[in-house]
Amino acid sequence: MSMNDPLGDMLTRIRNGQQARKPVVPCPWSTLRERVCQVLKDEGYIRGYSLQDLGGNKKDLMIELKYDQGQPAIRTLKRVSTPGRRVYSAISDLGVVSNGLGISVLSTPQGVMADHKARAANVGGEVLCQVF
Fold first, then answer.
1. Domain boundaries, the chain
2. pTM score of the predicted model
3. What are the tens digits of pLDDT across the range 60-72?
């Protein structure tokens, strides 16, 4: 069975894993998923991630979830741009998430990055998701 929204699937796995208080969530690997995990790690929303080789040209991302006093580090994780409705934003039109406490993850010509790094580099792009 084919998957229409691989990034949305990963975000849902993270939400479900945190709700079930899982320490690690497995997810099929893709370059985009790995780049988004790197942004989440850099911003402190997950502990980290690692690649697990399954053989036969298949890999899994093992995403280590982060908790603070039993509460998940991620309160909300929302997919913005979907395969059926792409959302692009110029850097001047990009709003703040939760009064600046959250981030937007963007796919730009310079790579996948958080909104504050995109503002510093003065590049816009596709708004992948919002995290708070």
1. 6-72, 77-131
2. 0.94
3. 999 999 999 999 9
